[in-house]
Design goal:
With 109 residues, the chain is an all-alpha fold. It has 5 helices and no strands. GO terms for molecular function: DNA binding.
Length: 109
């Protein structure tokens, strides 16, 4: 019964929605979702609720968890952005070599 009470406290915590959204953002980045990778992580964090004078252990944990997820998402984004930039560079180089997609070459279909 105690486990269910803990789950309920966590799911009702104000930071739960932020943690959940940030976790889903990480999953989207890993799946290659370009739109998710370009979104602003600071928006996911949302407005910070004013910390009570004596925050509970759960308050501190939820804040730390959300911050860790944001840091993870930023770290995941770095290689994804680098790979996308490299792919774009190769694509542009191929276009310049073949003339495909340029004004002087064959039009894109």
């Amino acid at each position: 019964m105690e486990e269910e009470e803990i789950k309920k406290k966590i799911s009702c915590h104000p930071m739960f929605a932020v943690s959940k959204a940030t976790h889903l953002h990480c999953l989207k980045i890993c799946s290659g979702d370009q739109e998710a990778a370009s979104s602003d992580l600071d928006q996911l964090q949302g407005p910070r609720a004013k910390q009570p004078a004596n925050p509970s252990d759960l308050d501190l944990f939820m804040e730390a968890h959300a911050a860790a997820l944001v840091a993870l998402a930023r770290e995941i984004e770095k290689p994804m952005k680098e790979a996308a930039a490299f792919t774009e560079l190769v694509y542009r180089h191929l276009q310049s070599v073949t003339g495909v997609g340029t004004a002087g070459g064959v039009e894109d279909e």
